[in-house]
From TrEMBL:
Its EC number is 1.8.98.2. It is an enzyme of class 1 (oxidoreductase). GO terms for molecular function: ATP binding; sulfiredoxin activity. It comes from Araneus ventricosus. Gene3D superfamilies: Conserved hypothetical protein from pyrococcus furiosus pfu- 392566-001, ParB domain. Keywords: Antioxidant, ATP-binding, Disulfide bond, Methylation, Nucleotide-binding, Oxidoreductase. This is Sulfiredoxin. The keyword Nucleotidyltransferase does not apply. It catalyses: S-hydroxy-S-oxy-L-cysteinyl-[peroxiredoxin] + [protein]-dithiol + ATP = S-hydroxy-L-cysteinyl-[peroxiredoxin] + [protein]-disulfide + ADP + phosphate. Residues 14-109 form the ParB-like N-terminal domain. InterPro entries: ParB/Sulfiredoxin_sf, ParB_N, Sulfiredoxin. CDD domains: Srx.
Length: 114
């Protein structure tokens, strides 16, 4: 597992958060390679190696009435591994974003966030 992974969105973000798994919004279905998911599950189950799994980038959007929304578009295999293991949190880099940023991904399907 390459723990030097960075993305364009979160390359400048150093802080990693343990985000409750159940607050992540994933608007698109994942295309998965089963071997990758299983490998990540094994890594996550081992307390000595679980920190080697790179955090997932999450767009953190504040709604117009102050609600917080956490959108995850990448990290499909990492997300699925956490889901199957029923882990309560997932390591994330929060990318402070706007509704306009979200519209870049969702277009006319962007919800009215409160």
């Amino acid at each position: 597992m390459d723990d030097t992974f960075t993305s364009i969105h979160a390359a400048h973000i150093q802080e990693i958060h343990d985000v409750p798994f159940n607050v992540l919004i994933r608007p698109f279905p994942s295309e998965l390679e089963e071997e990758k998911v299983l490998s990540l599950m094994e890594t996550l189950k081992n307390s000595e190696t679980k920190e080697h799994v790179p955090p997932v980038d999450v767009l953190w959007v504040t709604g117009r009435e102050g609600g917080n929304y956490y959108y995850s578009f990448g990290g499909c295999h990492r997300y699925e591994a956490h889901k199957r293991l029923q882990l309560p949190t997932i390591r994330c880099k929060l990318v402070k974003s706007t509704i306009e940023d979200l519209r870049t991904y969702l277009g006319a399907s962007t919800p009215d966030l409160r």
